[in-house]
Amino acid sequence: MVGVPGRSKACITCRKRRKGCDSIRPRCTQCLRAGLPCEGYIRQRLFINKTTTTITTTSTQNNTVKPSPLEAVSGSVLLPAALSHSAYEDKYIGLYWDTYLPSRQLLSRCKDSDRICLGGWTTTVQDLYVTSPVLRKALLALCLSTISRRDGQQWMAEEGLKFYVSALQGMSGALKVPANAKNDALLLANKLFSLYEAMYGGDGQERFRQARSWLAHCGGDMALLISRRPEEYISGYAHRLFVDGRMALVNNYPLESYLASSSLLTRKKSILSHDEWKTIPWSLQPKTPKDQLTDILVDIPSLLEDFDIMDSCIYPEKKEAQRQVLFDTCWALINQLTEWHNNHSSLLSSKLPDPGTTEYITTSDLVTTHLLTQYWTLCLIISKTLLELAPPPHQPSHLKSPHFPPPTNRHPATYARLIIHAVHIFLHPSVGTFRWHLVSFPVSWVVRYMNSDSVQGEEMRAEREMLEGLFRKKEAWTLRRWVLRERRE
User: Fold this and answer.
1) 3-state secondary structure 267-313
2) Cβ neighbours around 251 below 10 Å, total
C-alpha cells in the first residue's frame, strides 16, 4: 500500500512517485529506467505529537476500559485507527533502533563488510516484519521492553510481555502448517524470542526459568534450521539468517552466537560440523573471516563431548589412547586458529580504541574487537581443554607433544586477560544495547574459566576485580544478570 509506513516494500523514490517497484537492491529497476536516484528502502518513521501524557478512561456500567498505550491518540490528532496504530508502532520501533544499534546508526548504512560481520539480521528484520504478524509482535515485544528499561516505564514492559505472549501463540499456530517451517520470517521470529528471553525473560517472578526458556527457543531454532536442506540456505534472506545464527546455535548465546552455542553448553556434537553445512550454503558467495572462524567453532563441541567420554572411561589403557587423540585434536584446532589469524592479520592489526578518550566507537572498531574477542574465546576454550587433559601427577602418561603444558602465550589465562581488557570497548555508551550480541559469549567463557579448578587462590585477582568493576557499570546490567543466572542453572 503506497504511502502507508510499514506496509509498502517499495523504495522511497517509488513511494513518492506512486510507482510500482520491484524492490531490487541497491537500486530498483524503476529508478534506473527513469534515471532517478533510488533513495533506498529504510522506511520513514511517522511520529504523532501528544499534548498530554495522561490517558483518559471511560466507564461503562461496572467496567472501566483503558485504551492500550499504543492506541491512545491525542485529541489534537485525528487519524484512522489502523494508521494511528501503525504510526505508534513505527514510533516505538524507531526508538528501539536508536537505543539498540551502535552509535545510533542502522547497520544497513555501514560498509557491507562491517554489516555482514556484525549481523545483517537488523536489515532483514526491517524488510520482513511487515510480512508476518508473528515477527511484528516479536519485534514490538523487544522494542517496548527495551525502551521500558531505558526510561523506567513499567506499562511498556507489560505491553511488551503481551506482544511476546501473543507472538508465541501465533508461532504455535503457524507451525501447525508444515509449509511454514520454511518461512524466513518465522525463523527470524524465533531468534527474537531467544533474544527477548535472554534480555527480559527474568523480569518476572519466575526468574530461574529464564535460561530454560531461552534454551527451549534455541532448540526450536535448531529444529527449524535443520527442517531445510543446506541447499536452501544458498541465497536470499535464508542465507543471511543461517550465517548470522550459525555461531549462536553452536555456542548458545542469543542471536550473535546462537546456533553453535547450545552445542558448546551441552558439550554435544553439532550437526553444523558436518561438511555439507560448512560448504553448500556458500556455493554462490565467498566466506567472510567470521564465517571461517565459525567453521572452527562448530568442531569444538565434538571435542568437548569426546573429552567427557574419555574422562568417564574406567580402562586405563583405553583412556590413555583417547587422551592422546584429544591432545592431537586440540593442537590441530590451535593450528587452524593460528592460520586464520595469520590470514587476516591486516584486518586484526588495527589499534583498538581507548573507550576512556573516545567519543563513540565506530563500526570498524567494533568489527575488529568482535573478531579478536571471538578468536581469543576459542583459543581460551581449547587451551583450557589442553590443561584439563593433563593426567593426575601420580599417574604415568605417554603424551606425545612438543610442549606440555601449553606455553605461556597459549595459556587460557592469557586469553582471559585479553578479553577482559577488550570488553571496555563493548560497554562504551555509544555502542547501545547491541553490545549484548558481542560481549555475552566471550565474557561468559571468561567467567567460566575463572571459576574453574584451573584458577587457584589469588591467581588472576586483578582481572577478577576488573571484571567486577565492569559488571557494576549500568551498561553491563543485563550481562551481569545473565551470567549469574547461567551459573545458577
Assistant:
1) CCCCHHHCHHHHHHHHCCCCCCHHHHHHHHHCCHHHHHHHHHHHHCC
2) 31
| pLDDT recorded at residue 437 | 76
Q: Percentage of the chain with pLDDT > 90?
A: 20
Grid cell 533502533 in the structure block, residue: 97
Q: The C-alpha cell of 159 is what?
A: 505491553
The beta-strand segments (E) located in 22-105 are 58-60, 63-65
Q: What is the DSSP string of 349-367?
A: -SPPP-TTT-SS--HHHHH
Write the burial class of residue 420 (CB in 10 Å: 0-12 exposed, 13-18 middle, 19+ buried). buried
Whether 39 contacts 21, CB under 8 Å: no
Per the listing, cell 572498531 goes with: 365
- The mean pLDDT value for 410-414 works out to 87
Return the amino acid letter for 103.
S
Contact 139, 192 (CB under 8 A): yes
Residue 99's pLDDT is: 78
Q: Does residue 336 have a pLDDT over 90?
A: yes
Rounded Cα gap, residues 115 and 122, in angstroms:
9
Residue 448 grid coordinates: 567460566
**Claim: this prediction has a pTM higher than 0.90:** no
Name the 3-class secondary structure at 63: strand
Residue 78: which residues within 8 A CB-CB, separation 6 or more? Answer: none
